[in-house]
Design brief:
It is built from 12 helices and no strands. It has 304 residues and is mostly helical. It is 76% helix and 0% strand. α2 packs antiparallel against α8, α8 packs antiparallel against α9 and α10 packs antiparallel against α11.
Amino acid sequence: MNSLIEKPDYLKQLVIILIFCLLSVLLFSIVGAVVAKLFFDINISHQFSYHQLANDELNALKIIQLFSSMGLFIIPPLIYAKLVSETPFTELGIKVKTNFKSIVLTVLIMLVVMPFLSFTIDINSKLVLPEFMSAIEEWMKQSEEQAILLTTSFLKMDNFLNFFFIFFLVAILPAVGEELLFRGVLQKLFIKWTKKYHLGIWITAIIFSALHMQFYGFLPRLILGVMFGYLFFWSKSLWLPILAHLLNNGSVVIAAYINPNTINESEPFLSSENTLLSISLIIISFITTAFLLLTLKKTQKNTV
């Protein structure tokens, strides 16, 4: 019997998963860089300019992103689950089935929550730090700009094959991988550690949002992380948060493929021309989302 199962030491488990993540992402990033170098005529060692990425540089970054995502989000949770459980796929929530009603509710939740999420994006974008933190704020803005430039470059798809690859890279891989790590591993660990499921869900959501390193999207990503967390906790199935995550990321990729102009569109949700309508939509979105989440919770209780 594994000692981690007999005498669970949650701090030890957290350290182990962090070490796995660091070693795995380092190894896979190196492999990705080598593969990118083999296929594209680029100098991996030099700093890329996200403002002017050549096609080979962009394709190389996609390959590196593919490998590093697998190394960070896919491999460590699988190894960790094997160490702490005799049934690793059940431990991660992969083998736990869900019902059709819960799937439909999850889809509706992700559709209905959009106006409220847009509102949180508006709030987050207006973040201003105190004067003594101006250096940090400038660094945050530069990091955000680089992330936006890279994402915008990734989402420029000129054919269906490119769309399929980007959909896998930006939607499917993060949906599966990030949910494996954050909900399948870290959330369960923090809930057991704190013995309070609300606290465990929120801690995980904060880490989930912070590690994306896009500070002006922290609040909406935090809200999504909390939603994904409750979906997993109530259903015990990782497939519901994976579906929700996939719908969120996938809708962006599909919209960018259908209409490339949407990539750079960022109009504020609270319009000065229709403030009352905007506020009404935000309130309706929040209340309806909460109602659907509670309905899903009751559905899961009835199936237990």
